[in-house]
Design brief:
Blueprint (H helix, E strand, L loop, with lengths): L6 H12 L7 H31 L7 H10 L5 H11 L2 H18 L4 H24 L22 H19 L2 E5 L18 E2 L5 E2 L3 E3 L6 H21 L5 H24 L19 E3 L1
Antiparallel strand pairs: 1-4, 1-5, 2-3
């Protein structure tokens, strides 16, 4: 009679799936943690300022009504249908479905689940922020007469479309283009081929001169990452503009949503730099790009 699988087997598989190499360079890890802290603290502080502005009708809030009036007077029959499609697709429900599909495909195609789990966690945090802040603030939307797609009686601050979309695209671009590359060396017969420019050597000997080194990371920039960031900013700007143009949000609504999304991005960067699932190996070494027997993930 076949023996039942050990209860720790599935847990071990999950740990291996979520394991992500630690950032070996302490200075690089510290810089990312500092950046994450600045993003979170700075964005939250600015968010509270925007919140205070519309409560007191000061500073940026003074532009809410004039901008809404100007957009209402300059609506274009060619632009409106395009923005209607965009705002429909990027609704919080739509972004949840898009992010869910992205995460599921990523989990299916990858043997390492750390990044898709971070993306899923960021969207969960964003949705929680949308529901929680709207429930606390209870800000009214612009006049129903200005809404082009019918009345919406839900609360306005912050913009759910903007927060969900900004979180998704910024976190996705970070995970794909701006985080340190994870490199998993396999096996190679030539020790010299695995030496780093600094002269580091593999850590554990194998049979017949074959050696293996622990997985590690490096902050090497990816090609095209600034174009990806520009594309993300463009998407964010179009979605935010669509909410203003169609008459469903004030300028301070989309500004607050953008700042909350930056705070979520800061949380993701901080957790990614901390990497609680990282195996802590001694002797981890950086492996040059394209070294024999290595794969990037």
């Amino acid at each position: 009679m076949p023996s039942a699988p050990h209860p720790d087997a599935s847990q071990g598989l999950l740990r291996r799936r979520l394991a992500e190499p630690a950032i070996v360079d302490p200075a690089a890890r510290r810089r990312r943690l500092v950046l994450a802290g600045l993003l979170v603290v700075g964005s939250v502080l600015l968010f509270t300022r925007v919140w205070d502005w519309w409560l007191e009708h000061e500073d940026l809030s003074r532009l809410d009504t004039p901008l809404m009036r100007w957009l209402t007077e300059h609506q274009d029959p060619l632009v409106t249908p395009v923005l209607v499609v965009i705002t429909t697709v990027t609704a919080p429900t739509g972004m949840i479905l898009i992010s869910l599909a992205t995460v599921l495909v990523w989990l299916w195609r990858s043997t390492h689940w750390w990044r898709p789990v971070l993306l899923a966690g960021s969207m969960l945090l964003a949705v929680t922020g949308i529901v929680g802040v709207k429930w606390i603030v209870e800000r009214r939307r612009p006049p129903i007469a200005d809404m082009l797609l019918g009345a919406d009686h839900s609360f306005s601050f912050p913009s759910g479309h903007t927060l969900a979309t900004t979180t998704f695209v910024l976190v996705l671009v970070y995970l794909l283009y701006f985080r340190p590359r994870a490199v998993t060396p396999r096996f190679a017969a030539d020790d010299a081929a695995l030496r780093s420019p600094a002269g580091a050597v593999p850590t554990s000997p194998g049979d017949h001169g074959v050696r293996q080194v622990a997985a590690t990371t490096r902050p090497e920039p990816r090609r095209g990452r600034w174009w990806a960031l520009l594309g993300a900013v463009t998407v964010i700007a179009v979605v935010a503009f669509s909410r203003l143009y169609l008459g469903y949000h004030w300028l301070t609504d989309v500004t607050g949503a953008f700042l909350l999304a930056l705070a979520v991005l800061g949380v993701v960067i901080g957790v990614d730099a901390w990497r609680p699932t990282a195996p802590r190996h001694r002797g981890c070494v950086a492996v040059p790009r394209g070294a024999p027997g290595t794969t990037e993930r």
